[in-house]
Specification:
Helices cover 5% and strands 43% of the residues. The chain starts with a strand and ends with a strand. It is built from two helices and 24 strands. It is globular, with a radius of gyration of 19 Å. It is mainly beta.
């Protein structure tokens, strides 16, 4: 486990499993990422046998922050090459390329194709702020389609407010989990939507009843989201590169009973990504939405998460 720290922020990164960020907290404070510290259900990587790639990926999920590349969303096959749920880098071991003291690290992951991803993570020494600077490279001469995004799930007890004011959104119509509480055709301007019964719902407010929601932010004035919890005196802000990630998926899970959480998670995930809906690379290619990285070229991206007094 890689530990980054300053006097303002502490971050833990599991380079053995997707370079997942598993802890983000002020020194000695509460983890701002949703995280279930549990050995169950058994992970697929520990010998668990599951009936589908989806269940295998979910068996590894304990919360935290994953990166999605070169696939995002549903698993699929493209050109005979399998792409697992959220892409292989989300669970693969990453290589540590450089370590600068206690506040910065650079990591790298290869993929099932000729695409490579490099990420530098740096803590600001003056304030509680984590900066991610990334680059994808096509190591071959041939162009390759890809999807790219991030999957940070933030701890969110009832009463937590997610602010992305003015964004237009659509709901995922196929979500049919026991706690799904939005209508299949809902859309609108954040944060107003319709429930299954047709009543108005403030989707930016974490409810006090079990609920699960998947929404797509399809138009955003600013690629920025704020999370305000009722039990903290600060504002968590996630910002990202609009050129690399013009959209965002929002996944709200409060005590969903389905596998693998069994009612243990309460989180708001804001997922910057370069396509929607979450139906995977093959579907994005078919509708002309998946970008192509030409041979021997690269693309860059950045993300920042910070904590500030909410005055």
């Amino acid at each position: 486990m890689i530990q980054l720290e300053t006097e303002h922020l502490e971050v833990d990164v599991d380079e053995r499993s997707g370079a997942n960020i598993v802890r983000l907290a002020r020194p000695g404070g509460t983890n701002r990422l949703a995280w279930i510290d549990s050995d169950w259900p058994i992970r697929a990587s520990a010998g668990g046998s599951y009936d589908s790639p989806d269940h295998a990926w979910l068996s590894e999920h304990r919360g935290g922050w994953q990166e999605m590349f070169p696939n995002a969303g549903a698993g699929c096959t493209v050109g005979g090459i399998p792409h697992p749920v959220h892409g292989e880098v989300s669970l693969a071991p990453w290589q540590v390329m450089d370590r600068s003291g206690r506040h910065e690290v650079t990591l790298r992951s290869y993929t099932h194709t000729a695409l490579m991803l490099t990420r530098t993570m740096r803590l600001d020494p003056e304030r509680p702020r984590l900066e991610l600077k990334e680059q994808i490279v096509n190591l071959s001469d041939a162009p390759i389609h890809y999807l790219w995004g991030h999957h940070p799930a933030f701890e969110a007890p009832p009463g937590t407010r997610l602010q992305v004011e003015g964004a237009r959104f659509e709901c995922e119509p196929s979500l049919a989990t026991p706690e799904a509480d939005l209508g299949p055709d809902c859309e609108g301007v954040w944060p107003r939507a319709e429930s299954q019964g047709g009543a108005g719902v403030d989707v930016g407010l974490m409810p006090d009843h079990p609920a699960e929601r998947v929404l797509y932010l399809t138009e955003m004035a600013e690629t920025r989201a704020h999370i305000l919890r009722p039990d903290t005196g600060d504002r968590l802000t996630l910002e990202w590169s609009s050129q690399a990630f013009p959209y965002a998926w929002v996944w709200i899970n409060h005590r969903a009973s389905r596998f693998p959480w069994f009612g243990r998670l309460s989180s708001m995930a804001v997922e910057p990504v370069n396509a929607w809906p979450a139906d995977g690379l093959a579907a994005a290619i078919s509708r002309g939405q998946a970008p192509t990285l030409p041979g021997n070229e690269s693309r860059r991206a950045w993300l920042v998460v910070s904590l500030a007094d909410d005055g």
